[in-house]
Amino acid sequence: MNGRPPAANVLQPERRDIVSALVYLFERVMPDPFVLSIGLTLVVIVLSMLFAPKADIPHILSAWYGGAFGILGFALQMTLILATGYAIADAPVVQRALRALASRVQTPTKAALVVFPIVAVAAWLNWGLGLVVGALLAREIAKRVNVDFAWLVAGSYSAWSICNSGLSSSIALSQASHGNALNLVEKATGQVIPLTQTVFAPFVFVPTIAVVVVMTFIFIKMHPRAAAITPLREESAAPADDPHARSAGDGSLAARLEQSMLGTLLLLAMGIGYLAIQWHQKGFELDINTTILIFLLAGLALQRTPIAYADAIRRAARQTGSMLLQYPMYGGVMGIMSGTGLASVIAKAFVVVSTPATLALWSYLSSLIITLLIPSAGGHWAVQGPFVLPAALSLHAPVARTAMGVAMAENVSNMLQPFWAVPVVAIAGIRIQRVMGYTAVTFVVSLVIYAAALWLIP
């Protein structure tokens, strides 16, 4: 024996050092996101007073009130996207499918090869669905395979990171939705940006696929050696009360109505009928409301009875409380920036340093920092959109590329911002600090991939 510890034990303290630094940064330095939004409001007020042309107290208060309450419709839409996605993942048939997939996994390598594509597809379809599927699939696999649980949860969260490039991207959907409170493009130009120019554009979907493929193989290489594995704790793996177990009812009219599929069938007929008529008359198109409707219908069909779906939404509501507080706060920030003229001042600064070819990249780089302060893409766009969009219009730069630069940076910075990891780790039953050490690697890799795509792909 030469006295040297095994290689896995040499690497473990270094990992702990990284995790400790992230814990200190996010749990000791950064306050609760709601408190952070209050601090950001104060910063914007001070900046407005220093630099904006209309920064007297009546203007600031009026703009804050208008922005805070003008965004409530959008806040509800984003909350429903998470809730309807959760209800789909919560359905018994989906839960059985996840268990069946997990039963086919025997090694950490196969775990990564299963988790990354499945979670990425789910997140691309609906970011709420991706969060829940990732956490539940990680738990099911960890019950059966000798795998490091923190590594597996971090992998599912990394796969989820591409959601802001998908069909439920709040930035892409809001710009595609006529009359939406955050459709800043329509307010400025009278036009909407279809998803073909954002989500389905090559400069978006190519790096999205690249991140999933590259990170899959990087995570395979990052799995700890056998001696350093921390498996799923038995107490966190123990099943809670069956969320789908319901009493048979007492035979009352109320119980029969709750357990009847007639209500579900009625809503399905109405929703499908509406979509069929709209798409026949106007052609196939998606916006925020039709996306929510599709996932509502899918969840109803999978849950089958009205009471089962209502129970699933009640469970989803536990994950949405912080969102309900933050969106009005960021709407107020947007209102102050727009109402006082601060957004125009910042936009002019962007025009000075940017060209039509580089504005999207500058938008991306600045978004990386803003995401750490504003972890919600919708709230983020409410703050950053009012100054990058006028810059794009002034420079005649591609508006869709500039907007998606903000969304793509949101994908990246979420790997260092624990806001969206909170529901994942809560469902998975693991401490967040153990996960963030791995996702820091995803941050670095995806940072390079998305920046290269914005710069090089037409």
Q: Which structural class is indicated by helix and strand composition?
A: mainly alpha
Major sheet description: none
What is the number of E strands? Answer: 0
Give the overall form.
globular
Number of separate domains = 1
Q: What proportion strand?
A: under 5%
Distinct helical segment count: 23
Any low-confidence stretches, pLDDT <50, length ≥5?
A: 1-13, 234-246
Radius of gyration: 23 Å
Kindly, what is the distance between the CA atoms of the first and last residues, rounded to a whole number of angstroms? 58 Å
Chart the SSEs and their pairings.
Elements: H1 7-29, H2 33-51, H3 57-70, H4 72-90, H5 92-103, H6 108-125, H7 127-144, H8 149-160, H9 170-176, H10 184-189, H11 202-222, H12 234-237, H13 253-259, H14 262-282, H15 288-303, H16 306-317, H17 321-340, H18 342-353, H19 359-373, H20 377-395, H21 399-413, H22 421-428, H23 432-456
Helix pairs in contact: 1-23, 2-17, 3-17, 4-7, 4-15, 4-16, 4-17, 5-7, 6-7, 6-8, 6-11, 7-8, 7-22, 8-11, 8-23, 11-23, 14-15, 17-20, 18-20, 19-20, 19-21, 20-21, 21-23
